[in-house]
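Justification of computing resources. Each target in the renewal requires a structure prediction run like the one illustrated here; the chain below, 706 residues long, is used simply to show the kind of job we budget for.
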Amino acid sequence: MPENPNNRPNRNFNSNNNRGNNNNNNNNNNNNNKGNGNKNRQSLVILLVCILLSLLCMSLFTGVFSGAGSKEITYDRFLTMLENDEVKSVLMDQETLEITSGITTSYVTMTEDETALTERLAKTDVEFSREQTSVVAEILSSILSFVIPFILIMLFFSLVMGRMNKGGGVMSVGKSRAKSYVQKETGVTFKDVAGEDEAKESLQEVVEFLHNPGKYTAIGAKLPKGALLVGPPGTGKTLLAKAVAGEAHVPFFSLSGSEFVEMFVGVGASRVRDLFEEAKKNSPCIIFIDEIDAIGKRRDGGQYGGGNDEREQTLNQLLAEMDGFEASKGLLILAATNRPEVLDPALLRPGRFDRRVIVDRPDLKGRVAILRVHSKDVAMDETVDLDAVALATSGAVGSDLANMINEGAILAVKRGRHAVSQKDLLDAVEIVLVGKEKKDRILSQEERRIVSYHEVGHALLTALQKNAEPVQKITIIPRTMGALGYVMQVPEEEKYLNTKKELEARLVISLGGRAAEEIVFDTVTTGAANDIEQATKIARAMITQYGMSEKFGLMGLASVESQYLDGRAVMNCGDETATEVDHEVMAMLKAAYDKALELLNEHREALDKIADYLIRKETITGEEFMKIFREVEGLPEEEAKPSRLMEDMSVEEAVPAQAADPADPEDMDAIYAQAKGRKDSTYCEVPYADDSTQDTSYQEVTDGED
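Resulting structure tokens:
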């Protein structure tokens, strides 16, 4: 019968698979032989060390026991003692004489013929005899003197190696410490992960590939060899890996990058080999390496003899193993780090890590989803509004939000309630961010006035500027993290860009506390240290990163390092240019400070009344603050946000009290439209991790000095 042409590819495919399997078996056999050879060499070295130490102990013990309680004398001294009748007995043991005289015992090596010595001793009254030696006893004594130290040394090595390897024994120094999980052992699935939809989708595709490989291979798709999870601390990288382990239905090996490193040379590379050998035996499977930057740092390129370092040997072995397997084997590598910039380029290339999964800070929708996941088992009353909590925690990561929910539940129990309320959650947000109220710190009346005016200075400038976020709360109660008081600002909506005007407004607000102190008390205090630091960061970022300086224009003068950690900016310009940047920062801060002084002087009445009210109440809400502000400024009650009426000028310039009736909506709309037309439209990107543009939590101004 004619052959079906559709069967030919199948036959070839099967034969190719057979050849591939044979090659794989040969490779595994070679790897096993190499592993056995390494183990045999390691065992031989340990055995030789134990033998040498045992022989050393044997010689030491023999010398100690033979010389215990006796001393060696010369033969002429022995003859002199014999002539003076000082010798009581002589015991001959082959070539050695044991001499007893009184209470002392000495020994001497015999130098004359035994017959002559016997005749000499016979002429005296000395008792002499010969010790009868047993060959069996001597052999047994020699064996015991060697075997006992050998056994003790072997036990010592076993205990040391066992402790170093947590019970692994002498032969397991190079064994992998990866923990193996099977389905559902972690107790985490993708349903427990929220706020990272894109990252979760990328990993779900990989898990689906492992479940139904035929659906993908039918059109020629291959399993990605690796996925690198990158993001700030606390965003859920390890949680995503646990979810993969919970849903993969395949063996899951998990370990930290630091577990490859040991005090012995070559142990890290050996553990990498052992890990991949074990994974290949259980393929298809997943290997998860947490904090891979511990072993994956960039190599020095041979400048300092690269390749001889233990960490680099481990990395070289990891690179060889990752690129040495085929996608058809179903071996997937997951790794997590928050420092991708320090990783070796050879580790990041496609073929080793085909996917880079960004696990960034969640947005507003993501924070709401995270709060719902962590609050599903927490009893909450009808006042809880998770959307409001999410809006108040801009920049918070998943671990922060989980901690806030837990702190809110603890506060509810502490206050005698059976369910968590909205007040508990908002108080928990403050506890996580600025600490608990420090009730034992009692400020003097003068210090309370200074702190009150300082915080009201921040808040009043927030209300007087259009490009500022509304005030939620003002307090002068000290906190455990060092703040003597703070102003809480909650954004009206999620923002990803900041305009130049908004950043300039933040500069003015940051310096408002120092300006209020100078106006009211004609002096300044140390309480503005944190404000000055934050204002300097903003101004420097505007000049060096965002191109918002007229002098330097669009020139980039700094680059961000450690994007997912501290977001530190490093200058990449000359010393003279850096000096000019400092002068530009000083000029920008001085302009902001002058504007703060101007606005507060023009609204001194509102500053005094709000500060007096804050001194009496210690904590006031944003509504109370705005009510006093509207009463002093003569603004209508229905105008919820007077800051929307203000432009770069003062309130009197924007809305003159005699020029128009503030209650007239048409006049208000006209003034606002005119002001809006003059608005600067310069924007800058707002990376959440960069403190110079947006706080990592809700907007606030704190006094960092005690």
